[in-house]
Amino acid sequence: MTAKHVTVLMGGFSTERDVSLTSGKACAEALAKAGYRVSTLDVPRDVRAIVAGIAPDTDVVFNALHGRFGEDGCIQGILDIMEIPYTHSGRLASALAMDKPMAKHVFAAAGIPVARDLLADRETLNAGDPMPRPYVVKPFNEGSSVGVRIVKPGDNLPPYSAETWPYGGAAMVEEYIPGREVTVAVLGDRALGVTEIRPAEGFYDYAAKYTEGKATHICPAPLPPETTALVMDLAVRAHAALGCRGASRADFRIDDADPRRPRAVILEVNTQPGMTPLSLVPELARHAGIGFEELVSWMVENAQCDA
Asked: Is it the case that residue 247 has pLDDT exceeding 80?
């Protein structure tokens, strides 16, 4: 039988371009080792160039894009029109997950605990604290903690001008959940395990995610069995509530100030989790006995299209 032809989409033009290039390169190399015919495409802004850049004999697209256009339903819609199966979630689940306020509505409706939040424009943020400190300020639709700020007591909150806040005219303000940060990888309909993330300093921001030595991953997370089971169940429920497929990653904060009643709060679901050497889903897959080649091959073999 002729090997499947897989086109790996990578790069793009979001704030996460560099991470996507690293993810795409790793996936393309692993797929080639697994026996697939592999092409790569650094995705441009021109839709016509995207269509022309995907070889006509492509059987499956491996979507290794991160950030806007790559994981918000846009590229998924183009691939649906082209009737090409692709990895990860479809356009609706991708759009829902990328829109943080909307995703939280979905989680809350499914009974998954979320942090209290409100939406604030620049004028409201500049006028004073919209909720008691500490709180978190996030863009509506960026990934990899791009633009996320934790405002603590005593901090001097800088003005949110167009220059210092290039993420739109409003932000989501969210209560800060103290405690530990953990993440859960979901593959299909099952959770692979839980990793605890301990940043060297500050919080798990963009630099900590993608710079070696900036954070420690403890896999499996040293949690009580019942807490591990809880967050794994919540991750699978969140994956299903959004309508995700393939691989996703759910991030949580665990407030365990009272160890008798730990509180797990979901932060977000990432429908396009990183596939870099420092990424969490490949790490959790290894812990579950799934090598990188096997993981990306599973994604290809389970690719779908919503045409």
From this structure: yes
